[in-house]
Design goal:
alpha+beta; SH3 type barrels; 2 domains; five-stranded antiparallel β-sheet; flat
């Protein structure tokens, strides 16, 4: 019995959660080029199979093996390999047990960090980088790692408690 405005607000919140950089990095770490994956088809609302053709910042390009067509979907549409159902009968979102649902990860903000702190993050090659914050910008932190400066969004940074050289 929600109003249209309430549904719109809910859809905005869901889109923000799906675009969360931590979710994208987590999804990318489980995927690789040429991998056969299952994804939720927006048009039919069903789980379908396709092969990964390209991985971009916010979307993955899939190749439908039957029609040989390429199309892009958000990483959120990909069902992670460990959560893929074994039977084709479980093709509705309600078929997944509630026990598998996890709360979204907390997103760090600018006020959570200080210049001189040791932090870590995962770079675009999915390698863990550890360094020190040299500067706090409006939306990113400048982090020096092994002689290289990186500009990293606060949501991608993680605090490092103890680093032994």
């Amino acid at each position: 019995m929600a109003t249209s405005a309430e549904l719109y607000q809910l859809s905005w919140v869901i889109e923000q959660l799906m675009a969360d950089p931590r979710r994208i990095v987590q999804a990318r770490s489980q995927l690789h080029m040429g991998q056969l994956v299952k994804y939720w088809d927006w048009g039919t609302g069903k789980l379908r199979e396709a092969r990964i053709a390209a991985m971009k910042d916010r979307q993955v390009t899939l190749l439908d093996e039957q029609s040989k067509q390429r199309f892009s979907v958000l990483y959120a549409a990909i069902v992670p390999p460990e959560e893929q159902p074994n039977t084709s009968a479980a093709t509705s979102p309600s078929a997944a047990p509630a026990a598998q649902l996890r709360p979204p990860p907390e997103i760090n903000r600018k006020q959570d960090f200080r210049v001189g702190q040791r932090v870590s993050f995962v770079d675009q090659s999915l390698n863990r980088q550890v360094g020190e914050i040299k500067r706090l910008n409006q939306r990113t932190a400048t982090v020096h790692c092994d002689g290289r400066a990186w500009r990293v969004g606060f949501g991608l940074l993680q605090h490092v408690a103890d680093v032994t050289p």
